[in-house]
Amino acid sequence: MVLPKHVAIIMDGNGRWAQSKGLPRVAGHQQGVLTVRGTVQECSKLGIEYLTLYAFSSENWSRPEGEVEALMGLLGQYLASELALLQEQQIRFHVIGDLSKLPTEIGQSLSHSMAVTSTNTGMTLTLALSYGSRNEILRGVQRLIADDKSGLVDASQLTEQQFSDYLDTAQLPDPDLLIRTSGEMRISNFLLWQLAYTELYFCSCYWPEFDASQLHAALEDYSRRCRRYGGVSSALSAKQHQNESLEEASH
Ligand code: FPP
After folding, report:
1. Whose CA is nearest to atom 6 of ligand 1?
2. Which pLDDT score is estimated for 239?
3. Domains and CATH numbers, the chain
4. Is 40 within 8 Å of 78 (Cβ atoms)?
5. Helix H segments across the chain?
6. pLDDT at 237 (0 to 100)
7. What is the C-alpha to C-alpha distance for residues 73 and 66, in angstroms, rounded to an integer?
8. What per-residue string of b and e applies to 41-70 under the rule 16 or more CB within 10 Å gives b?
9. Are strands 50-57 and 6-10 parallel, antiparallel or unpaired?
10. Does residue 14 contact residue 31 with C-beta atoms inside 8 Å?
11. Residue 12 CA to ligand 1 centre (angstroms)
12. Distance, CA of 13 to CA of 208 (rounded, Å)
């Protein structure tokens, strides 16, 4: 099976999962953390090189204060409880987003987790936190303008690769596969630049229900996709070449 090198996931449906069970929304997020743990372990075990999870969007700040606090609390607990597991599985921890908006103690935990795992050699786990793709692009452009002014870069000659280096994802390859749970078919301001040629996979289960079998189904679907990046696939072009040769021979 052809495995994607980089899997990105929009983890959606915690609230609806909880509501469907008559539970408060926060219970959905708590269950969602367990799914995060299972997914990280399974991806690492399968040999996926990069896993990027959309954990908190820049728009999520507008949720009720209690829910934001609960999500930040869960994040803090997650960072504290998972570090040993990340170390054990040699997972490198990384974050993208506008981290200046996060509570100080969360910022410190994030820096600590990144520092401690920085020399690990296994999968790179990236959490998108206080992340919005338009905001990321804007922050990148602001840094680019500053570098252009100080002569570090010539913005008029900029290549796509150079611009990518101004994004939070500078150290990551573009995702090969994007999974979104809960049946919604939107990108929701996630990795807009980086998803240019990514294969999209939508599944109807809510995030707390997403398990190893759902992940495997997504990976199997991906392995059957034919990626052409705007060109023609090698199999297709070989077939065309064969047809053209046959046509020439018959003339
Ligand atoms: C979407 O569910 C999910 C989120 C807003 C955040 C995802 C958060 C977690 C999985 C838990 C915390 C994560 C970590 C890594 C500690 P929703 O609330 O939008 O669901 P709804 O669309 O059904 O309302």
Report:
1. 55
2. 46
3. 6-250 (3.40.1180.10)
4. no
5. 14-20, 25-46, 65-88, 104-117, 133-149, 160-164, 212-223, 234-250
6. 47
7. 10
8. ebbbeeebbbbbbbbbbbebeebeeeeeeb
9. parallel
10. yes
11. 6
12. 8
Q: Which helix (H) or strand (E) holds 202?
A: strand 199-202
For the chain, residues with pLDDT lower than 70 are 233-251
| CA distances, 146 to each of 97, 135, 158, 160, 237 (Å) | 20, 17, 14, 18, 45
Question: Which candidate, 109, 116, 14, places its Cα nearest to that of 67?
Answer: 14
12, 53, 86: residue to mutate for ligand 1 pocket, most atoms within 8 A of CB: 12
List of residues 6+ apart from 13 with CB closer than 8 A: 28, 181, 182, 183, 184, 205, 206, 207, 208, 209
pTM (2 d.p.): 0.91
C-alpha 189 – ligand 1 centre gap (Å):
15
Residue with tokens 């596969």: 177
CA distance 138 to 8: 21
The pLDDT value recorded for residue 161 is: 96
Q: How far apart are CA 50 and CA 172, in angstroms?
A: 8
Q: Minimal CA–CA distance to 201: which of 173, 223, 222, 229? A: 222
H-state helical runs in 89-233: 104-117, 133-149, 160-164, 212-223
Q: What is the CA radius of gyration of the chain?
A: 21
Nearest to 139 by CA among 110, 102, 96: 96
- The per-residue pLDDT for 231 is 82
Q: Which two tokens stand for residue 50?
A: 């990069």
Q: How far apart are alpha carbons 160 and 112 in whole angstroms?
A: 32
Would residue 168 show up in a list of annotated catalytic residues for this protein?
no
